[in-house]
Write a structure and sequence with these properties.
The complex is a heterodimer of chains A (433) and B (258).
Chain A (H helix, E strand, L loop, with lengths): L5 E6 L9 E8 L2 E9 L6 H4 L8 H5 L7 H16 L4 H32 L5 H7 L1 H22 L8 E2 L2 E2 L5 H26 L13 E4 L10 E4 L4 E2 L4 H4 E4 L8 E4 L8 H8 L5 H9 L12 H20 L17 E9 L2 E9 L5 E7 L1 H20 L5 H13 L15 E5 L1
Antiparallel strand pairs in A: 1-2, 1-14, 2-3, 4-5, 6-7, 7-8, 9-10, 11-12, 12-13
Helix pairs in contact in A: 3-4, 4-6, 4-11, 5-6, 6-7, 7-11, 9-11, 12-13
Chain B lengths: L5 E6 L8 H4 L3 H9 L1 E5 L11 E7 L5 H12 L1 E7 L1 H5 L11 H8 L23 E3 L6 H12 L11 H8 L4 H5 L15 H4 L16 H10 L4 H8 L7 H6 L7
Parallel strand pairs in B: 1-2, 1-3, 3-4, 4-5
Classes of the chains: A alpha+beta (433), B alpha/beta (258).
Chain lengths: 433, 258
C-alpha cells in the first residue's frame, strides 16, 4: 500500500533545545533509502585538557565526562594507569572496586529502567505518569536506585563524582560499621531486585530479531566489570591494548559523538551484549528466573536489553553482598605509586557498555595525550542500523506519532547516556505521492 | 484554576550530573512533582522548552552559537533563573579551553571541526543573561536544590552558602589534611556546601564548589610552594571544575579573559 508513496521524515531534535540527537529519514515505497542519527552534545574536549595534568588528577577529571557513570570513567582510568606503572593494589582494593562498580550499575540501571525505558513500554509518558499507574513498582525502583547511590557514597562520599578513588587504591577504607549497616540493607533489597527482574520478563516487548555483533569483556571466572579480554560473538578475542587495531572511529557531519566500528562494521555494547557473551557467568537465581519466563540468551531481540539490565541489577546486588560479607578494614586503602613513561590502556564495563581509555605519560606521570572511547559512540552505528530495521519491520505506513514513538523507543533502549536519551524527537513529516 | 508553581530544568554543555540532584531525590522527587508542575525536564520526560515558568534551573555552560540564543529564550520565559553547578555558574572544566586555543583543540579531537557548531570558549550563564541565584558545586546536591525551591516557594530569599570548606571541617571535627598530612588542600579558598567530604576521606579538597567569599589565595599558594609544588602545579589547583571563576583565574595568574 505504500508502493507509490514517498515519505520524507525529518526529525530535527527540538534542535539543540535539548540539543543532543536528531534523526533524519527518507523512505520510498515502504523502504528506507537514507537514515541518519546524529548525536550532538556541545563538545567539551576532555581529551585536550587532560594533557599536561598529573596522573593523580586524572580520576577526578574524567569522572566529569558523565554524571551518570562517573565510577566507570574513574575505573577505566585507574586500571590503565596502574597497569602502566606496574602497580598491583592487591585483593582488597580489587574487591572493593568491584563493589563500587556494582553500586553504579545498580543506580544507573534502575534509573534507566524506571525513568527512561518503562514509560515507553507501558506508554505512561514519564516516570511521574508511571508512578501514578504503578506506584509500588516505581517505589521499588527508587529503592534500588538509592541502594546503588548509597554504595557509591560508601566509597566516595557522594554518588555523583565520588571522591574516594585514586591511582593505587582508595583514599579511605569504609568503616566496618558503615559496611555492615549497608550490607543489611543490600540483603533486604534482594527480593526487590528479583521481583523487578521477574516483572521485566512479563512486559509485552516487541519481537524484533536482528543480526548484530555483541562485544563485551569476558573474565575467566566472573561476570565482567573491571577486568577481562575484549571478545565478540564472532570470534574477536583481544587484549585491551589491541583495541585500536580492530576498532576505528569515524566523524560524521552533525555529530559530536564519533561512530566507532569493529572491522568496519557496527556492533553492540552494553547489558544485552554482556549477557549474550557471559550468560554462563550469571548467578543461578538469575538464570532460573529467565528460564521460567521462557527467555533465552544469547538473544537477538534488542528489546531484551531491559531484561538484561534487570538481570544485571540482580547480579550487582548479589556480587556486592558476596564481596562485603566478612568485610575487614585494612590498614592501608592504597599502595604507593611510582609513575613511568609509556602508554596506558584501560577498559572496563560501564553500565552502558565497554569504556576504553588510553593515556600516554611522561616519566614523571604527566599525561601527554589521552583517548577515550565511550559506549555511546560505540553503539551509535548500531543504533542507526537498528532504527532502519526496526522502523521498516514496524511499517512505515504508521502515523507520524507512532513512527516517532517507535524511533525514540529504539534509541532509548540503548540508554545512550541520559542526555542523549531523546525525549525530544520533534517530528515533521512531508508525504508525497 | 491551577496555581501550582511551574518549574523547568534546562541542560547546556555539561555531564548531566547536576540534574541527578533531582533524579536521585527518591520519593522526594514524586513529592516535588505533586507540589510543582514540572514543565520541562527532558531527562525525566516532560518536554516543553519554551513554556513560561516560575523557576528555571539551568545546568551547563554556553559553548555553541545555538546555545547563545537558547539561553536568551530561557531567560525570557522564566521569573527566576537559577544556575545549578560549576558549568552553569563558572564555565566548568570545559572552560579550560578559554585559556588555550579553543578552535585548535576542536581540530585535534574531531576529524571535521567544520561539522561542529562550537564557540572557542565555554562561559557561565551569568555572562549572557541575568541570573537570580547561583548554586555552586560539581555536582550540586539535592539539599541545595530543595533549599532553593523551598525558599522561593515560601517567598523568602535563598541563603547563599559562601563560607569556606575549612569551617565545615571544623564543625565536622575533621582533622586538617593540610596541617597534618601536607596535602595541597583547597579548603581555605573553596566554598562550602559539599559537607567537606574530601578531608573527611583523608584527602585534599580540589575546589569543586568554586571560590568562597573574599578568598585570600596568595598565602595558600605560598604554602603550596612550601609543600614543594611548582608554580604550574599550583596554578592547576585553581584551574579545574570552576575554570572561569574570576577569583580562581586571578589566583592562577590568569587575567580572566574569555
Amino acid at each position: 500500500m505504500t508502493d507509490t508513496r514517498e515519505i520524507r521524515i525529518e526529525v530535527p531534535v527540538l534542535a539543540r533545545v535539548e540539543g543532543e540527537a536528531s534523526l533524519q529519514l527518507r523512505a520510498r515505497a515502504g523502504r528506507i533509502e537514507e537514515l541518519k542519527l546524529r548525536i550532538f552534545e556541545p563538545p567539551r574536549l576532555f581529551e585536550k585538557f587532560l594533557e599536561g595534568r598529573d596522573y593523580y588528577e586524572v580520576p577526578d577529571m574524567v569522572a566529569r565526562i558523565c554524571g551518570i557513570c562517573p565510577v566507570a570513567y574513574q575505573m577505566s582510568a585507574v586500571h590503565a594507569l596502574e597497569s602502566l606503572f606496574g602497580v598491583d593494589p592487591g585483593p582488597w582494593v580489587r574487591a572493593q572496586r568491584r563493589v563500587l562498580y556494582c553500586g553504579e550499575w545498580l543506580q544507573s540501571h534502575s534509573l534507566h529502567i524506571h525513568m527512561l525505558a518503562l514509560p515507553d513500554f507501558l506508554r505512561t509518558g514519564s516516570v511521574i505518569g508511571l508512578a501514578e499507574k504503578f506506584p509500588e513498582e516505581v517505589r521499588r525502583g527508587l529503592r534500588l536506585q538509592q541502594l546503588g547511590n548509597d554504595l557509591i557514597r560508601l566509597y566516595g562520599g557522594r554518588s555523583v563524582h565520588p571522591v574516594g578513588v585514586r591511582v593505587g587504591g582508595f583514599h579511605l577504607a569504609p568503616p566496618a560499621a558503615d559496611v555492615s549497616a549497608l550490607l543489611a540493607r543490600l540483603r533486604a533489597g534482594v527480593p526487590d531486585a528479583e521481583a523487578l527482574l521477574a516483572w521485566t520478563t512479563t512486559l509485552a516487548l516487541p519481537a524484533d530479531e536482528q543480526g548484530f555483533t555483541s562485544v563485551a569483556l569476558r573474565h575467566p571466572a566472573e561476570y565482567p566489570m573491571n577486568e577481562g579480554r575484549i571478545v565478540s560473538d564472532r570470534g574477536l578475542d583481544i587484549d585491551r591494548a589491541g583495541f585500536e587495531g580492530r576498532f576505528a572511529e569515524r566523524h560524521e557531519a552533525g555529530s559530536t559523538a564519533l561512530f566507532c566500528h569493529l572491522d568496519g562494521e557496527p556492533y553492540l555494547v552494553g547489558p544485552l551484549a554482556r549477557v549474550n557473551l557471559n550468560v554462563d557467568r550469571l548467578p543461578s537465581t538469575v538464570r532460573s528466573v529467565l528460564d521460567r519466563a521462557g527467555l533465552h540468551f544469547p538473544s537477538r531481540n534488542m528489546y531484551h536489553s531491559i531484561v538484561a539490565r534487570a538481570a544485571e541489577i540482580v547480579v550487582a546486588l548479589h556480587e556486592a553482598i558476596r564481596l562485603l560479607s566478612g568485610y575487614r578494614r585494612p590498614e592501608a586503602a592504597c599502595v604507593p605509586v611510582e609513575a613511568r613513561a609509556g602508554t596506558a590502556y584501560g577498559c572496563t564495563e560501564a553500565p552502558r557498555g565497554l569504556l576504553w581509555h588510553r593515556y600516554d605519560t611522561t616519566a614523571d606521570g604527566r599525561v601527554m595525550s589521552a583517548r577515550i572511547v565511550p559506549p555511546t559512540s560505540q553503539n551509535q552505528a548500531r543504533m542507526e542500523e537498528d532504527l532502519r530495521q526496526s522502523l521498516e519491520a514496524y511499517g512505515l505506513a504508521h502515523s507520524d506519532a507512532e513512527l516517532r514513538w517507535r524511533g525514540e523507543t529504539v534509541i532509548r533502549n540503548y540508554d545512550p547516556c541520559i542526555s542523549c536519551a531523546t525525549h525530544f524527537l520533534d517530528l515533521r513529516v512531508e508525504r508525497f505521492g | 484554576m491551577n496555581t501550582k508553581p511551574r518549574i523547568a530544568i534546562h541542560k547546556f554543555a555539561s555531564c548531566d550530573g547536576c540534574q541527578l540532584a533531582f533524579l536521585n531525590l527518591g520519593e522526594t522527587l514524586l513529592e516535588l512533582a505533586a507540589l510543582v508542575d514540572i514543565m520541562h525536564f527532558a531527562e525525566a520526560g516532560p518536554v516543553d522548552p519554551d513554556a513560561p515558568v516560575d523557576i528555571a534551573f539551568v545546568e551547563g555552560s554556553i559553548t555553541s552559537r545555538e546555545d547563545l540564543s537558547r539561553i536568551q529564550r530561557v531567560r525570557a520565559n522564566s521569573r527566576y533563573l537559577i544556575t545549578i553547578g560549576a558549568c552553569a555558574t563558572a564555565g566548568g572544566l570545559q572552560a579550560l579551553r578559554n585559556l588555550a586555543d579553543g578552535h585548535g583543540w576542536l581540530a585535534a579531537v574531531y576529524a571535521h571541526p567544520e561539522y561542529i557548531d562550537a564557540l572557542a570558549t565555554s562561559t557561565p550563564i551569568a555572562r549572557h543573561v541575568k541570573v537570580d541565584l547561583e548554586l555552586w558545586g560539581c555536582p550540586v546536591n539535592g539539599r541545595q536544590v530543595l533549599a532553593a525551591v523551598r525558599a522561593l516557594l515560601n517567598g523568602v530569599p535563598p541563603v547563599e552558602e559562601n563560607e569556606k570548606v575549612c569551617m565545615a571541617c571544623k564543625r565536622n571535627q575533621t582533622v586538617c589534611v593540610l596541617v597534618t598530612k601536607g596535602a595541597a588542600c583547597m579548603g581555605p579558598v573553596t566554598r562550602t556546601g559539599c559537607g567537606a567530604i574530601c578531608p573527611r576521606f583523608g584527602r585534599d579538597c580540589y575546589a569543586c564548589y568554586g571560590p568562597a567569599e573574599n578568598i585570600n589565595a596568595a598565602p595558600l599558594s605560598r604554602r603550596f610552594a612550601g609543600l614543594g609544588l611548582l608554580p604550574d602545579a599550583i596554578a592547576r589547583r585553581f584551574l579545574s571544575m570552576n575554570a572561569a571563576a574570576p577569583a580562581f583565574l586571578a589566583a592562577a595568574g590568569k587575567d580572566g579573559h574569555d
